[in-house]
Every structure is written in C-alpha cells, then in structure tokens.
Amino acid sequence: MTSLPANPSDTKLGLVIDLDICVGCHACAVHCKEWNDGGHSAPLTDHDPYGSDPWGVWFNRVHTFEAGEGADSRTVHFPRSCLHCDEPACVTVCPTGASYKRAEDGIVLVNADACIGCKLCSWACPYGAREYDDVDGVMKKCTMCVDRIYNDNLAEADRVPVCVSTCPANARHFGDLGDPSSEVSQLVAARGGYELMPEMGYAPVNRYLPPRPRKVSAGDTGAAAALTPVDHSGDVGVPEIGTGSRLLDWVDRMLSR
Amino acid sequence: MNPSYSVIFFTTASGTGYGLLALLGVFATAGWLPADPWLGIVGIGAALALVTAGLLSSTFHLGHPERAWRGLTQWRSSWLSREGVVAVATYVPAGLFGIGWVFLGDTGGFWAACGLAATALAALTVGCTAMIYASLKPIPRWSNIWVLPVYLLMALAGGGVAATLLFAAFGSGPHWTGWLAAGALVAAWAAKFGYWGSIDGAAPRSTAESATGLGGIGKVRLFEPPHTGTNYLLQEMGFRVARKHAQKLRRLALLSGGAVPAALCAITAISEPGWPGTLAAVLAATSFGVGIVVERWLFFAEAEHVVMLYYGAEAA
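Above: the input entities. Below: the structure tokens describing the complete assembly.
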C-alpha cells in the first residue's frame, strides 16, 4: 500500500550526519555497498566493474562541497543517502504498492517482488536516494540496514546501519529521531541539526549537523592569528627554459595549447 | 530529465487518440456524427489504435512489463495508477460506442451516451497523465499550473487535426471541423506560451545552499563529485539541452505543431470536399505529429531535477 501509514508510531529511525567531522573517506559508502550487496536489496549491480568506466548502484554517495570565499571558505564532505522522509512522495507516487513506509519505525523500503521498474519514485525524490538497477529491473534504495538493526544474530553493538558502525571519525549517528530524549535528538538540538531542502515539504527524518564555526583566535600557542602573504613584487620571474631541441619545444607548445 | 522515447511516444500518441475519441463522443451526442459504419471503423479504430499503441509503448520502459497490472492497484495515492485505471476503464464505453457505430450503424441514444462517457474518461486519462508530471515537486518545470491545461489542449488539438483528416477523407461529418482544430491548436499553443513564460521567469525553487544547508557559510559549489564515472541519477536526471538549441526547437515545435497545421486545417475547412482539402489535412496531421513530438521532447529535456544541485547545479 503506497498510501502513507494511517497510524504511524512515534518511532522515526534516522541518521544524524556530522558535517563538522566527516573526513570524506567514503568508508560509509563502501561498507554500505559491501553490506547491501548481500542484504535485503541484493545485488547492487555494477556495470564494467573492472573496466575503465565502471558504474553501478550505490545507496550512499559522498560529495565534497566548497562554501564561502577565500580564507573564510570551507571544504565540506557531504554524505548523501535516503533521508527516510515523513512525507515521502517516492512512496505515494508508486503505482504498485512496492514502495512503502513502515508504520513501526518510519523506514522507507521497496518490495522488489512488486516493483515494475517505472522509475517514477526516483523522479519524485529530491535527494537522489533511489537508484535503478537495470539488470534486476527494479528500484533500489537505502534500507537503513533493516537486516542488521533488528538482527538478533549480531552483537547488540553491531545492530546499527553499517555506514554508522564503519565510520572511523564517528561522524554518523543512528537512533530514534521521533523521541526528543534520544541521544540523536539531543545531539541535533545541541548542534543545530537541520534538514535538507525543507522547501520541498518532504519532512526528511535524517539530520545534518553543520560545520562548527572556525576558530579565529590562535589560542595561547603564540602563533600569529593569520599568516602574512608572501610579497612577490620583487620577483624576477622564472626564465623561459627550452629543452634545447626545437622539435621537443614545438611538441611542448602544441601540447600546452 | 532524459527524454525517454517510449514515454514521448506514449504521451503524444495516446494524447491524440484520446483527443479524437473525445471529439467523436461529443459529436455523436450533438448528432453531428454520420452513422456510416466505415467512418466508425476508421474513426474509432484510429483513436483506439493510437491510444493502445501509446499505452503499450509506455510499458516498454518498465523494468518488469509483465507486472504492469500491479500498477492499477494504488489509485488512492498515485496519479500513475489513476491514469492506468482510467485508461483501462475508457475502453468500456469506447468499445460500446464503436459497436453501436460500426455494427449497428447507430450513433445516437444509448450509443451516443457511451461516446460521451468515453469523452469524459479520455479527458480524465489525459488529465491524470499531466498530473503525474505536475505533482512532482523536485522537477520545478513540471510542477507548474500550466502543465495540466497544456496536456489537455494539446490532446484536443491533436484530436481535432485527426478528426479533420478523418472527415475530409470520407467527405462527411461537419465540414467546420477544420476550424475547430485550428481553434484548438491556437488555444493549445497559447497555453504553451503561458507555460514557457512561466518556467522562463520562475525564481529557482531550490539552490545548492538549500540542498546542502551550507548557505550560512557562503556560496556553495561542488568541489568533488562522489564518483568519477556516471550513475543512474546522472543518466536519468542529468540530461540538459543547450539553451540555444532549446530556443530553436521551441520555434520548430510552434511552427510544425501549431502554425502549419492550423493553417492547413483552415484550408481544409474552406475547401470544397475533395482531394485538395484531404491533402491539406494529411499534411496538417503529419506536421502536427512532428511538432508535438518536438514539444514533448522539450518538455522532458528542459526540465531540471533538483537532485542535480548535488552534482554542480546552482539552482533549480
């Protein structure tokens, strides 16, 4: 049933991603690929995996953005995956009932046995969370590692999405964002966590923690607050150096065009 | 958005078929439809052939066409499902209308009522098709109030051109159908101009800043994409048409899909019944076919998806 649950529980399982400490190592994306290639939505098909132009299905992608200008600019690594929205149009547009939002915990899943591969859900998602598997002919997406988080065969510490357990910088957190007293909710409150593209009205559950303000004082290290730019005004410049061979110089000029 | 040829063919062919079906139903109700069985075979046959070819084509882009029936189940929430349900339902009154016309030589009374029901369902189907696109907020150029009127009027115009050709070829039916087609074409392209004006002048709905939430630091730009190769998102939603080409294609669509067929349909309307009028109608239908495909291709190619904000777009 692709209508949203009539009586959802208060539980909203989600991720909190700390953009202040994400180092952009892509471990979350790689471990996601590894786990889910054998999990609920397996396989995550690849094309040309060992060739020169490989591509395939991933549920988690780490972008890197720059924000701001000059000395005040920041480089921010930005993991992007399904936000398990409260108003997921990807679910309601589904004509077959394959896409659904679970009433008990808010996880958005695809029933691959009912999916006709019309791709409309991927058009309806502003966040690019859904990737089509053209070998299986069905849509696939982040499962919040639903095959881990309730898995009694795993140690309790491991019952979290792999992107969270594998993060070496502890930039990813998993928990119940519907419970204001949960650790993740308190983290969001303390750090001013925000949702992506709120103007779309999808009410995403996942939250992103903004980079902390840059420290402007150098503390008590004795270092200058800012480095003085090197004065280049007296530079004589680098002399033009040829290779000594007119042919190679010509090749160099051609290649330098 | 990547213009998928199966979907372009579906929306244009079935739109025109539904337009023709809708007009035939209205004409029957008004008593303007000659009860000639041959006209019925070709008229209803052409309408249902266009509709059916379009619907079949739309299943070609499915990953699992054999499961297409499942698409009829979620009409409570999904415009795509509603479209499927109404499209299937349209066959019932359309089929009855055709039986009365072709086998009983009767286009009045109960059979006309069936025709009118087919008209209503045909309009609903085209409306559902438009709403599939118009309801997608992540594609600002689709979730636009002009999309629904444009789809409905383009279907009506296509049906008008087809009806003009049908009646001209048979030398029967209301001779002024050509004027109706010309009028519908003018209305459809007026709506299309409204659409183009709206999307060209629209402020961006989302930006790289709102997509990342990093606007507080400053202007946001992509430093490194997450993957060096392609992926599904870039293939499906990363399609862009150069603005220069888009402007040329808009003019081509307007000329071939609007001005030329409108003039030719008017020529059919003022010609005496005979081959010159029929030839004009054939040319009108051919020209419209080219123009509507270009129009629909542009509808996809010019639409930008907000997910591209994560891949270097600044605003969408």
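Note for the figure: Chain B has two domains: 1-135, 173-316.
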